[in-house]
């Protein structure tokens, strides 16, 4: 049977991550039927260890077990106002990262961490996790509400309407403006990513407010992440 592969950020639980079967940097769940790579989780910060080059977290989402999360940073020679700040203990946090294995344990290397703005995000994440598992278990691709066989592109089912600039649906659940912004970010070859100012200059028919709103949405859904500062971005699958 052909293995389904989650090609984008996959909403997951800690129980799923810890129960993965690991083969090098390949991780599979559901009896080896589904391969995971980039994941998003929401959990409570149980401990934080803040260092100049790495922030270590222990995260618990109450599904079973504690997950170690490592976020590599460059805070030693970075001005104070540009440093990546650690998340607070006992607070809910959303994490986007790559699955890795350290010292015979499943670990997530985070490329973004963010506190929850409200607990509705937790409810949405749980629903997304259930939805994604159903899609992956069927080995199907979900696009615009239709299912076709092939690779799996999971689509969040959260409050997408709140992030739309018009009433039309776009490719992969994105609006036309979100698509344009994502394509511009994906086209950059710089390690620093592309700046918001450059995107604004290239998308002359779109206001800066619309571009920043699209960036906020793409970042919150795990499509992009900030690099050297909050004005430079790269796509998570670049």
Question: Strands, helices and their partners?
Answer:
Elements (H helix, E strand, L loop, with lengths): L3 E2 L4 E2 L2 H5 L2 E3 L2 E4 L4 E3 L1 E13 L3 E7 L6 E6 L19 E11 L2 E11 L4 H18 L2 E4 L2 E4 L26 H11 L7 E2 H7 L5 H13 L3 E3 L5 E4 L3
Structure description:
The chain has helices spanning 14-18, 120-137, 176-186, 196-202, 208-220; strands at 4-5, 10-11, 21-23, 26-29, 34-36, 38-50, 54-60, 67-72, 92-102, 105-115, 140-143, 146-149, 194-195, 224-226, 232-235. The chain starts with a strand and ends with a strand. Helix 3 packs across helix 5 (208-220). The chain is globular. Strands 6-7-8-10-9 form a 5-stranded mixed β-barrel. The protein has 5 helices and 15 strands. Residues 140-171 have low confidence and may be disordered. A hairpin with a 2-residue loop joins strand 11 and strand 12 (146-149). It is of the alpha+beta class and 238 residues long.
Short description:
With 238 residues, the protein is of the alpha+beta class. 23% of the residues lie in helices and 33% in strands. The strands form 4 sheets. It has a 5-stranded mixed beta barrel. The protein has a 4-stranded mixed sheet with strand order 1-5-4-3, with no helix packed on it. Strands 13-15-14 form a 3-stranded antiparallel sheet.
Helix content: 10-25%
End-to-end distance: 29 Å
Topology pattern, helix = H, strand = E = EEHEEEEEEEEHEEHEHHEE
Strand order of the largest sheet: 6-7-8-10-9
The averaged pLDDT comes out at 78
Derived structural class = alpha+beta
Question: How many β-strands, per DSSP?
Answer: 15
Gyration radius from CA atoms, angstroms:
18 Å
What's the overall geometry? globular
What's the tally of helices?
5
Q: Sheet bearing the most strands, described?
A: 5 strands, mixed, barrel
Low-confidence stretches: 140-171
Q: State which percent range the strand residues make up.
A: 25-35%
């Amino acid at each position: 049977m052909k293995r389904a592969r989650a090609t984008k950020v996959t909403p997951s639980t800690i129980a799923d991550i810890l129960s993965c079967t690991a083969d090098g940097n390949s991780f599979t769940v559901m009896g080896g039927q589904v391969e995971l790579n980039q994941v998003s989780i929401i959990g409570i910060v149980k401990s934080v260890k803040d260092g100049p080059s790495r922030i270590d977290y222990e995260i618990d989402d109450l599904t079973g077990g504690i997950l170690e999360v490592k976020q590599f940073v460059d805070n030693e020679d970075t001005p104070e106002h540009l440093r990546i700040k650690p998340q607070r203990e006992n607070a809910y946090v959303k994490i986007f990262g790559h699955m890795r294995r350290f010292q015979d344990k499943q670990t997530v290397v985070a490329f973004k961490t963010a506190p929850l703005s409200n607990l509705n995000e937790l409810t949405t994440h749980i629903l997304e996790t259930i939805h994604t598992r159903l899609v992956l278990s069927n080995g199907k691709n979900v696009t615009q509400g239709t299912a076709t066989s092939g690779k799996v592109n999971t689509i969040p089912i959260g409050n997408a309407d709140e992030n739309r600039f018009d009433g039309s649906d776009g490719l992969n659940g994105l609006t036309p403006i979100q698509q344009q912004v994502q394509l511009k970010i994906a086209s950059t070859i710089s390690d620093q990513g592309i700046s918001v100012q450059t995107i604004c200059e290239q998308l002359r028919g779109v206001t800066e407010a619309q571009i920043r709103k699209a960036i906020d949405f793409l970042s919150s859904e795990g499509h992009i992440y900030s690099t050297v500062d909050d004005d430079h971005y790269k796509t998570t699958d670049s």
